[in-house]
Amino acid sequence: MRNHHLGRFGLLALIAGLIWSCLTIAALAHASLTSATPSDGAVVATPPAMLSLSFSEPVSPLVLKLVRPDGTTTNLERFALRDKTLEITSPDDLGNGTYVMTWRVVSEDGHPVGGSSIFSIGAPSASQPAAMESADWLVRSALWISRIGLYAGLFLGIGGTFTLRWLISPTGSVRHATFALIAIGIIATLASAGLQGLDALGLPLRELVTRAAWATGFETSFGRTVLLLIGAFFLSVVALWVQGPAMGRTLAAIALIAGAAALALSGHASAAAPQLLMRPAVFLHSLTIAIWAGALLPLIHALRHHVEAGRAALARFARLIPVAVGILVIAGIVLAIVQVERPAALLDTAYGNVLLAKLGLILVLFLVVSFNRWALTKPAQAGDGKARHRLARVVVVETILVLAILAVASTWRFTPPPRALAVIAAQPVSVHIHAEKAMAEVTITPGRAGPVEVSAFVMAPDFSAMVPKEVVFVFSNPQAGVEPMRRKAALRDGAWRSEGVVLPLPGQWQLRVDVLISDFDLVRLQDVVEIQP
Amino acid sequence: MLKRTLATVAALALGSSAALAHVSLQLKEAPVGSTYRAIFQVPHGCEGKPTNVVRVQIPEGVIAVKPQPKAGWALEKVKGAYTKSYDYYGTPTSEGVKEIVWSGGNLGDDEYDEFVLRVYLTKDLKAGETLHFPVVQECPDGAAERWIEIPAAGQSEDDLELPAPGVKLLDAVSGH
């Protein structure tokens, strides 16, 4: 509509000039919006057939647009003027979400006035935050594999050392296998530090040779995990190596504790509140996994090759493991409850899906374990050779399941838990606006498109307290064609607040804070705020 | 289409005299060092509501203020000290009316009225500049229209949402 007029600008300007020179009396009024249907900020259940805007004066529309929830704009062409009201037939294809009716009209005084009115169908739009940015899948795959290697090294290597020192004497091939697992763990742990750096910097895999990747990797909280874990791996090697059983046992236990503590130093779960609960939970979860999973390989070996030792080991294993698994499950439940927050998140977030997959595998694992315990362990302990061999095979299945669970759990590296998503989503955006006569600290919560709460602390330029008569927030988005929306603020707890403001689109919004310092003194503070999707 | 075109034409024609859309002064120009009849034209109420109170702030350099009483409106003169002493036909004047309030009236949104002051524009005011009189209209339920914005350097009245009415100051008339 507008462009059409602009095309004839020259001619219009000439006519305008002529009319101006003829005008002796100008109309004395300007138009302001008196009401809108649906009313500003309203949430309606079904798409309205008619929209309307009523003004204090008769008006002619210059621009009449509807900005949709996805940010696209529709010109409202079908409208009728009835006295001071613009009756608009709404487009037929309105889905759920928040719409902005935005207008620019001219009244008889010839002063164009613009404004916006918001309404939502169903519920206000609130887009899901994009927590996962564009990913480099090569780096991610490498990170995933290195994470599996890290877990294998920790749980099977360090855990295996613990078993070999405390439950079964370290003999032959299983000792070599444990050395190999620890070696894998060391390599994978070191590699994951560099990969972590690449991921943090958003660099491709070939940049792994750069110093920046490694420096960054070690600077993140994961760097501490890597250092402590490497220490634990070397302790574990020594524990396997030394001759003295007492020395070996002590070192194996320290390595186990250090390894479990290393995992508690970083990661989503350790970072969650309450820290006093979460860090010990991660520690106990890791520790008991290592005790249980670490016992599997030595046990297979003992059952297959050393009849007597195997039977004795099985007895000790059968006593120790229920305790370890009990702690493991309780710690795991605590972690899951804090991280997932609400049951629905199990289905609608990636983190929840991974947890479900992991729980499914664990269920299978527990079925196998129960079968072991009630069907095979007793006969095997009693000396039934067949049962012993079958038990060894089932323990192989258990080990494979454990590896699968570790592989699934490793994908958590890439899925922020619902708790973290909620934190990202609630992240407010703040802006400090300073002018000669006043300044304001404005916070928009959450800082993303959808319903928000706007609050502002208004101060004198010297940071002293100031109580203005009135504060109004004015939002506009010229890029999206959204004319100013005005929202009055109310003073509560020292801050000027306006709830139920809906910023329907992400992007750069112009924010103006109109501060009426006294009856005759108005300050307009302006800035731009970036609203996340 | 024609109507819309005409509206655009009107917009272009009147955009330059936007002050007319708001509370404005009828006499647009006055020489400094003279008496001025400030006639405030109030074109409408506050978003549909009637006007009950009209308040005018007297800018610095404007003295000897005498409001014209209006039937149906109570008149209040808020006095105070000026920032400096002004010469009023040889009499130094350092205090006087700083604000005029007409209250208790009921001017409908669809009605028009004028509020008049007689003032003296001292020679301390600079010819060539525009002198602004901030005006507040108060309506029921706390509603108000505030014509109180004064253009900053480089701004024009058209840039403002709520421009205060102004009068262009001319050179003093010599010879009195």
Automatic annotation (TrEMBL), chain A:
Pfam families: CopC (PF04234), CopD (PF05425). The chain crosses the membrane at residues 148-167, 179-201, 221-242, 251-269, 281-300, 320-338, 350-371, 391-412. It is found in: Cell membrane. The keyword Metal-binding applies. SUPFAM superfamilies: E set domains. Keywords: Cell membrane, Copper, Membrane, Metal-binding, Signal, Transmembrane, Transmembrane helix. Residues 30-121 form the CopC domain. It comes from the Bacteria. Its main location: membrane. It is a multi-pass membrane protein. InterPro entries: CopC/D, CopC_dom, Cu-R_CopD_dom, Cu-Rt/internalin_Ig-like, Ig_E-set. Residues 312-411 form the Copper resistance protein D domain. This is Copper resistance CopC/CopD family protein. It comes from Shinella curvata.
TrEMBL record, chain B:
Residues 1-21 form the signal peptide. CDD domains: YcnI_like. It comes from the Bacteria. The keyword Signal applies. Transmembrane segments: none annotated. It holds the Pfam family DUF1775. Keywords: Signal. InterPro entries: YcnI-copper_dom, YcnI-like_sf. Residues 22-169 form the YncI copper-binding domain. This is YcnI family protein. It comes from Shinella curvata.
